[in-house]
């Protein structure tokens, strides 16, 4: 009666241990790689530079509310050629200086510009927050993609070893006449298929590592794997509407759209200010010195003029520019309101979708854990049936494939739940680097 070696299942832990033993001694943690990405990622650096630019622009807008001071100096020389009793030629010079200051007293447009600058700076801060959250998710996705690719390669190699054992057993049984050539050919076909899967899994792992290297700016990055057994997190609070309410106040997308609407309303106020008068407080001090006289006198002179006052400017007619500008800004205000409504709907849908993804993923993990145990039992039953002659070789091979496929699906499902939890927090706008610490506790210790 054919016999199936018992090494196939025991080889799986050995294969996984061998795969992890070949890793660098100092594998990087998720937080460590995220810190490296913050110093390297071009998208995040761009968002930070944009934020700094917006803050400087906001301070520029403040200048419309503050006084302005100007100074000027003029030095000139003149020559008068005439026939008088004093002589034919008279050369003299003039030196003058002026210091002036102006303080806006009533300029509604300047105040609206200042308020716009403040809101635009806050919008840039929200954009930086969104970029930071996107970086957290991209690093985490690349991190777990590498772990999933490593697991897949390890499972494929373990399956290859098990199929090789099955192929060797089929050949021995055929040689002694206890099995047909069909068993050998079936095992050979399955072995060739697993070899092709191994090549594909190895290439996929190289690609996933390259992606992680690119986002972190490091070479030969090696993430720490999950410490098994692992309990995947469930969303807290366990109410999608609570997450939606959080998103209303925390989502960077909604914040940017809401600030965009406020900026648009201020632009309308600024346009309407074109009908309003402006009032400025002005003061100046002028000094003039005539050297060697002037055109009317040969004696030098010096004079000082001080002025102070209030300037009122009243717009009368600007060719209907103000009215048309108001119409334009009102249309842009409606657009900003529509953009805010769209952002709120998109975020609400994204939050609910991400929440359902986490809940469904956690259920899938539990189902796959049960399927793994069932597949293990099925393989043992098929192995025993093959030994007693009630099962054929292909039954054992199929049971092996099902078990290893279930193990791969379970590993990927665990990673998807962890990423889904981060994606839910990103959709709600609450994702922070501290959230990586919770995942860090699930990884193996260095």
3D structure, described in words:
The protein has helices at 7-21, 30-38, 42-62, 108-175, 181-216, 240-250, 252-272, 321-388, 393-428, 435-440, and strands at 68-84, 87-106, 278-291, 301-313. α3 runs antiparallel to α4 (108-175). It is an alpha+beta fold. The longest helix is centred in the N-terminal third of the chain and has 68 residues, at 108-175. The model is unreliable at 1-25 (pLDDT under 50). A 4-stranded antiparallel β-sheet has the order 1-2-3-4, with no helix packed on it.
Number of strands: 4
Please report the number of helical segments: 10
**Distance N terminus to C terminus?**
48 Å
H/E order of the elements?
HHHEEHHHHEEHHH
**CATH top level assignment:** Mainly Alpha
Q: What's the arrangement of strands in the largest beta sheet?
A: 1-2-3-4
CATH architecture: Up-down Bundle
Percent range for β-strand residues: 5-15%
How does the helix and strand content classify structurally? alpha+beta
Mean pLDDT over the residues:
87
Q: Give the overall silhouette.
A: elongated
CATH fold-level topology: Outer membrane efflux proteins (OEP)
Biggest beta sheet attributes: 4 strands, antiparallel
Low-confidence stretches: 1-25
Show the helix and strand layout.
Blueprint: H1 7-21, H2 30-38, H3 42-62, E1 68-84, E2 87-106, H4 108-175, H5 181-216, H6 240-250, H7 252-272, E3 278-291, E4 301-313, H8 321-388, H9 393-428, H10 435-440
Antiparallel strand pairs: 1-2, 2-3, 3-4
Helix pairs in contact: 1-4, 2-4, 3-4, 4-5, 4-7, 4-9, 6-8, 6-9, 7-8, 8-9
């Amino acid at each position: 009666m054919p016999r199936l070696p018992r090494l196939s299942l025991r080889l799986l832990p050995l294969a996984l241990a061998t795969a992890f033993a070949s890793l660098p001694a100092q594998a990087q943690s998720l937080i460590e790689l995220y810190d490296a990405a913050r110093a390297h990622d071009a998208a995040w650096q761009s968002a930070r530079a944009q934020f700094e630019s917006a803050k400087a622009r906001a301070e520029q807008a403040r200048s419309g509310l503050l006084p302005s001071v100007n100074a000027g100096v003029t030095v000139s020389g003149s020559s008068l050629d005439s026939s008088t009793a004093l002589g034919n030629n008279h050369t003299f010079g003039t030196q003058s200086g002026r210091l002036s200051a102006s303080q806006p007293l009533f300029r509604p447009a300047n105040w609206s510009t200042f308020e716009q600058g403040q809101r635009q700076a806050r919008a840039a801060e929200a954009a930086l927050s969104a970029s930071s959250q996107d970086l957290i998710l991209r690093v985490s996705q690349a991190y777990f993609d590498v772990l999933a690719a490593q697991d897949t390669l390890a499972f494929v190699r373990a399956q290859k070893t098990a199929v090789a054992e099955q192929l060797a057993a089929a050949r021995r049984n055929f040689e002694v006449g206890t099995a047909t050539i069909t068993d050998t050919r079936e095992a050979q076909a399955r072995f060739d298929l697993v070899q092709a899967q191994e090549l594909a899994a190895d290439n996929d792992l190289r690609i996933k590592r390259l992606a992680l290297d690119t986002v972190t700016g490091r070479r030969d990055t090696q993430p720490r794997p999950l410490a098994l057994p692992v309990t995947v997190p469930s969303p807290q609070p366990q109410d999608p509407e609570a997450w939606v309410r959080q998103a209303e106040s925390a989502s960077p997308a909604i914040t940017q759209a809401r600030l965009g609407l406020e900026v648009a309303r201020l632009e309308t106020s600024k346009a309407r200010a074109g009908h309003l008068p402006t009032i400025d407080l002005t003061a100046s001090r002028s000094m003039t010195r005539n050297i060697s006289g002037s055109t009317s006198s040969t004696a030098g002179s010096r004079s000082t003029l001080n002025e102070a006052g209030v300037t009122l400017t009243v717009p009368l007619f600007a060719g209907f520019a103000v009215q048309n500008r108001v119409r334009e800004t009102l249309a842009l205000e409606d657009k900003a309101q529509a953009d805010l409504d769209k952002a709120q709907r998109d975020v609400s849908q994204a939050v609910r979708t991400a929440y359902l993804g986490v809940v469904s993923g956690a259920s899938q993990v539990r189902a796959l854990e049960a399927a793994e145990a069932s597949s293990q039992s099925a393989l043992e039953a098929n192995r025993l049936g093959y030994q007693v002659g009630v099962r054929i070789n292909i039954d054992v091979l199929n049971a092996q494939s099902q078990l290893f496929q279930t193990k791969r699906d379970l590993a990927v499902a665990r990673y998807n739940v962890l990423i889904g939890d981060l994606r839910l927090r990103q959709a709600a706008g609450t994702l922070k680097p501290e959230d990586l610490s919770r995942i860090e506790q699930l990884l193996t210790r260095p």
